[in-house]
Amino acid sequence: MNRERLMKMAGAVRTGGKGSVRRKKKAVHKATTTDDKRLQSTLKRIGVNAIPAIEEVNIFKDDVVIQFINPKVQASIAANTWVVSGSPQTKKLQDILPGIINQLGPDNLDNLRKLAEQFKKQMPGAIDGATTTQEDDDDEVPELVAGETFEAAAEEGHTS
User: Fold this and answer.
1) CB distance 71 to 84 below 8 Å
2) What does the pLDDT average to over 5-10?
3) Which of 66, 129, 153, 160 could bridge across to 59 with cysteines, CB 3.0–4.6 Å?
4) Residues in Cβ contact with 89 at an 8 Å cutoff, skipping those fewer than 6 apart
């Protein structure tokens, strides 16, 4: 009798499926701070030093500017590495341009002139787009004035 009972119990034992016992141990995930610690340790190996008193950092990409207000800036001149950490804001160059003109040095004034020329080219381009529709209307055959014919107008063009 014990043997039959034992076989019954052995048949009931299974891993997973209906009637199995739930897992009691909760899986613990690593915190994301470990990534930050690894980054900081790597930066220490490179030899970065904090640069104090920087109020704003602007990174220019085409016509978009990534702007950091009161960032933490670290640099390693030997490794040619700059680290800017903080919360970034993405802005258009047109929005930020009046506020940063006084921050630009004499080297960047030429770049600023080039940007201004590009904006002028873009602005008249929009205006030209409006005038091309008027020019397209000129390509159409004009209305005839009462009493005139194409032959008469062509003869006048040849005689003059």
Assistant:
1) yes
2) 79
3) 66
4) 66, 67, 68, 69
Q: Per mean pLDDT, which range of 61-65, 109-113, 125-129, 142-146 is the poorest?
A: 125-129
Domain 36-93 sits in which CATH superfamily? Answer: Nascent polypeptide-associated complex domain (2.20.70.30)
In this structure, what is the dihedral angle of CA atoms 146, 152, 157, 160, given to the nearest 10 degrees? Answer: -100
What's the sign of the alpha-carbon dihedral 94, 96, 99, 102?
A: negative
Domain ranges of the chain: 36-93, 104-136
pLDDT over threshold 80, residue 148: no
CB 82 within 8 A of CB 73: yes
Of 90, 100, 91, 92, which Cα lies nearest the Cα of 122?
92
